[in-house]
Amino acid sequence: MKKTYLFLFRLMPLLILLLAWEFIFSSTGKGAFLYSKPTLILASLIENFKSGLLINDLKVTGSETLFGFLLGNSLGLMLGFSLWYSKLIAYISKPYIIVIGSIPIFSLAPMTIIWFGTGMFAKVMMAAISTFAVSVAQSYDGAQQVDESQIKLLKTFGASRWIIFRNIIIPSSFIWVISSLRLNVSLALLGAFIGEFISSDQGLGHRILKASSLYDTTMVFSALLCLIFLAFVFNWGLGLLEKKVSYWKNQS
User: What is the pTM of this model?
Assistant: First the structure.
């Protein structure tokens, strides 16, 4: 019962905002044109989902985000852990990782079009580049934070560096890796969105750009809600992954 009340209290600010938004901009046609209103947005969502327009955009942006997220994090985690495993790789790679992480992703968008074209692959690469630096940094920092006493204990038993890496470093870095994945969900979505915003004929970024050029604020908000929905879905999936990996870690 307490959880139900807390949930209702959590919804109250949103309900108040929606009611105020609807009431304020229902009085004038100009206000509804500039800022839209919840009832118009809901009607637009229903209409465009029935027509399949927003469903297709959701599939396109979701696919780009997912593939870019998997690619960027896979490469980033491998490099991040290899920085701990090999001091030479760490010494060589660190300055380049810092440079890549400091570049605004928006500035790379024109170059990705030149390098990878205007198709889906370019948006996947934008999403991958967006997540790469964070994944490297978090996995390496997680490996560095491992308790040295555990490593020394294994060394006294003659454990190789690979055994230490597999049995201590990777499991102990789990929290850091999950943190990087949660952060990278938003970055991957942002990368895919920017790619669509720069050059695309489908996807939520393209839909928002097209709608804003036509002063269709209702469609802009509808596509924005679809982006928020995608972010929730990816975070929900990560939550399930975290529970499964935590269970496996506790069992082992």
Answer: 0.83
